[in-house]
Amino acid sequence: MTLVYITCKDKKEAEKISMHLLRKRIIACANMFPIKSMYWWNYKIANENENAIIAKTSEKNFKKLVKEVRNVHSYKIPCILKINAKANADFEAWANKETS
Q: What does the pLDDT look like over 27-58, one tens digit per residue?
């Protein structure tokens, strides 16, 4: 199982990206939550409110996911992090079925 962590400018964008990936069956589900982010951007430290997505998918879908997120994301350089995970067998089977 692969978890993908994606940061977004706001809740609306996180929902839009999650729905886009769900409709294309690239992910089985997404969790979204508000976060506070601090990072370097344009030679300054930014301190922003964002929303994060944790999307559940398979390793084979990661490249498609990256392409689709880049197509719909508002950021010039979106954060798309792949996290390898081990899930309980029945959840992983369900997720694989939903993304086939």
A: 999 999 999 999 999 999 999 999 999 999 99
* Distances in whole angstroms, Cα of residue 57 to Cα of each of 37, 46, 87: 24, 30, 11
pTM beyond cutoff 0.90: yes
d(C-alpha 62, C-alpha 35), whole Å = 23
State CA 32 to chain mean position distance: 9
Residues contacting 15, CB < 8 A, separation 6+? 32
* CATH architecture type of domain 2-98: 2-Layer Sandwich (3.30)
Annotated domain spans of the chain:
2-98
How do 2-8 and 44-57 pair as beta strands? antiparallel
Rounded to the nearest 10 degrees, the angle between the axes of helix 11-23 and helix 62-72 is: 130
| DSSP category for residue 74 | S
